[in-house]
């Protein structure tokens, strides 16, 4: 495969538009571009999480997810192009079952945090939810398959479960929400 990007600064976007993979130019605030940007941001957050010292299965799984998200970006960049398959969603379901199997049931809401890797997984989870909302908004405007929405929904669930798992691996536990905390803390 030859060079795919030989020039990075093209100046073609100076007018507030960007090119899609099919050659069309759209506004940079187009719903498709917003969804693409959210998926790209999610992938970048996973890259930050992968910079942490993670257990091998987690880092292997996250790397596979990064590749899937790049494929999803391809779908968003080329209208009508399909790259995600049902098998991608099924793989997330298997990962969810695997990581959930070792965790105790939740009896209370948890706050994002605990160990640094878990906190980073929670940040990625919230970006996954935003990306999902962007794809849902795009699907209302244009014909778009359901697999991207399903994939992002499962991924946000998986990132929640991974955060809990990473807290357990770090020897800690989830930060439980204490509904009485705000009522009982001293007022300053």
Number of distinct helices: 6
Q: If strands are numbered along the chain, what order do they take across the biggest sheet?
A: 1-2
| Beta-strand content estimate | 5-15%
Global Rg: 19 Å
Poorly predicted residue ranges? none
Principal-axis shape equals: globular
Overall helicity: 55-70%
Characterize the biggest β-sheet: 2 strands, antiparallel
Mean pLDDT: 90
- What structural category arises from helix and sheet content? mainly alpha
- Rounded to the nearest angstrom, the distance between the terminal CA atoms is 63 Å
Number of strands: 4
Order of SSEs: EEHHHEHHEH
Explained architecture:
This protein has 188 residues and is mainly alpha-helical. The protein contains 6 helices and 4 strands, in the order E-E-H-H-H-E-H-H-E-H. Helix 1 runs antiparallel to helix 2 (56-77), helix 3 (86-100) runs parallel beside helix 5 and helix 4 (116-141) packs antiparallel against helix 5 (147-169). The mean pLDDT is 90.
């Amino acid at each position: 495969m030859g060079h795919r990007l030989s020039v990075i600064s093209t100046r073609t976007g100076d007018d507030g538009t960007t090119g899609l993979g099919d050659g069309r130019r759209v506004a940079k605030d187009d719903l498709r571009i917003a969804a693409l940007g959210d998926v790209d941001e999610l992938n970048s957050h996973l890259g930050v999480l992968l910079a942490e010292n993670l257990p091998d299965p987690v880092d292997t799984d996250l790397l596979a997810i990064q590749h899937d998200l790049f494929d999803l970006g391809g779908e968003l960049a080329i209208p009508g192009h399909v790259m995600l398959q049902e098998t991608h969603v099924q793989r997330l379901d298997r990962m969810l079952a695997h990581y959930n199997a070792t965790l105790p049931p939740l009896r209370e809401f948890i706050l994002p945090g605990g160990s640094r890797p878990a906190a980073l997984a929670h940040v990625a989870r919230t970006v996954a939810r935003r990306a999902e909302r962007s794809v849902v908004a795009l699907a209302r405007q244009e014909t778009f398959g359901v697999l991207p929405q399903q994939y992002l929904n499962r991924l946000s669930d998986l990132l929640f479960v991974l955060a809990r798992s990473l807290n357990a691996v770090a020897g800690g536990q989830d930060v439980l929400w204490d509904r009485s905390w705000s009522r009982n803390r001293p007022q300053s």
